[in-house]
Amino acid sequence: MGPTRVLTKDGGFGTQMTVHVGNAVDGDPLWSARFNATNPAAVINTHLDFLQNGADIILTNTYQASVEGYVDYLDLDVEQSVELIKKTVRLAHIAKDKYLAECCEAKLHVPDGFPLILASIGPYGAHLHDGSEYTGAYVDDVPLKEITDWHRIRIDACIAAGVDALAIETIPCQAEAEALVEMLCDDYPEVKFWISYQCKDESTLAHGENFADVARSLWELLGERNARSKCLAIGVNCVHPKVTLLYDYIFLFIIVKYFLLNF
Question: Which Pfam families does its entry note (predicted)?
Fold first, then answer.
């Protein structure tokens, strides 16, 4: 096995996009996803900002993109909404191509296959525009099949447009995460992904489940499906900076699992 290195992903896309579009992102029901239609150049330039500052991985601007959102707030039909999601992935590819051309001209080495493009798959609550991605309350009322069907059309569009993997992120509840993983194992056997949770404190998911228990449960589910090789990582995102114990829990869990698997 060759040497490994830490990979750097991009940062908050909507925050960085304000450099190019001002404060128009804040308060918009589509958040930064509106600009996939209205200002694609700003989307490309935001990707380039991260690439030019060392990102090995960029995420597509699809966190808050959904068919329902585009139908309601851009007056598109379903087919047009799906095509816009695909176009959004292509914007990331345009930025990657521009960056690689810049590196070639400057005679800068970029490892083969990099930078990677992952599809940002935000939670069901992100399209509700009520902050429920930070509570997970919707999972108590919305059937899981409705949630996975909502995800499926976005995932299909991103895969069709070409991504290296899926970044399933800011998931506030155990049920949504495990339903998504089951769907991916059943229907997308070749697709790799990582999954990261939203936590309200140093031990608990937004919906109230214990993070360490959820991580263990997900790992066991992946084992039951013989799908651990599909999962690139389990982690957290969009959390308070003073939550380092979360990382202690997950690292301890990984170390113990590694020991048991290799004993």
Answer: S-methyl_trans (PF02574)
Mean pLDDT is lowest, of 26-30, 72-76, 84-88, 181-185, for 26-30
Which domains are assigned to the chain? 1-116 (3.20.20.330), 122-250 (3.20.20.330)
Report pLDDT digits (tens) over 107-128. 999 999 999 999 999 999 999 9
Residue located via tokens 């447009």: 161
Residue 195 is encoded by which pair of tokens?
């999954």
Q: How, if at all, do strands 193-197 and 57-59 pair? A: unpaired
Q: How far is CA 252 from CA 204, 212, 228, 245, in A?
A: 16, 10, 18, 10
| DSSP label of 125 | G
In the chain, what's the furthest Cα-to-Cα distance? 58
**In 113-131, which positions are buried (b, 16+ CB within 10 angstroms) versus exposed (e)?**
ebbbbbbbbbbbbbbbbee
Instruction: Provide the H-helix boundaries in 22-143.
Output: 35-38, 40-51, 67-74, 78-105
246 falls in which pLDDT band (50, 70, 90)? low
Contacts of 45 (CB under 8 A, 6+ apart): 20, 95
| CB under 8 A, 24+ apart: contacts of 186-189 | 187/152, 188/155, 188/159, 189/227, 189/230
Q: What is the pLDDT of residues 187-215, one digit of tens each?
A: 999 999 999 999 998 889 999 999 989 99
